[in-house]
Specification:
Blueprint: H1 3-126, H2 131-152, E1 174-180, E2 186-189, E3 202-207, E4 210-220, E5 225-229, E6 243-246
Antiparallel strand pairs: 1-2, 1-6, 2-5, 3-4, 3-6, 4-5
Length: 248
Amino acid sequence: MHRLPLILCLVALAGSAVSAVLYLQIGNSKQLLELRLQETSARATRLDSELATSGRRQEELRAQAAKFEVELARTQERLSATESRAAELGRNLADTRSVLAVYESTTRSLGDEITALRRDLEASRTSNASPEAVQAYKNTIAELERQLASARNGAALPSAAGASTAVFTNRAGRATVLNVGPQNAFVVVNFGSVRGAQLGQKMTVNQGHAVVATVVLSDVRANYSVAQVVPDSLRGVLQKGDSAVLVR
């Protein structure tokens, strides 16, 4: 009977010890949990801040991307305009070179024509030609010299007919090919209204004694004409310097 109180005391002491140990463990666990909660809260706050910073950076990048797209579009527009302008300048340059080639060829042909007419004038004087014929030679030479000076100065060649050369039967219907169009579609000849050229007239283009094409005058100017090649008449490749003879 005296042992029971002792046992109960021991049990009570043991329970108190266990309770103390549990209390200490619970207190330590609570402190650990509080520390972890604080760390987690701090980490969550840091992540929120980083997320906000990332969001702002993303918006900045979007704004920069939009700006770059606008600048790219403007650059492409300027590039397209520059390419169009370059193409236009290229066409203008090609046209200018073509016109320059015609002027150079016309200038040479005018010089040759003046030289030939002077020879014919001297021949007509020695052969007792009529005063009208001699005067016609002089008038034509003066007109051609005026046009030659205009061509050398870069002025446009007149489109109106000058002095008639119809009296020059030995030269009125002969010409030289100055230029040949793409695929032999047309030719430019130094035979214009000054020498009696008219729309619709036909000429044969010759290489040596061979006829290589028949052409029809479609655009007559003072000192040269554009003539379309009759397709079925083409017998070779047309070249600069080919002779052309009026079909009467």
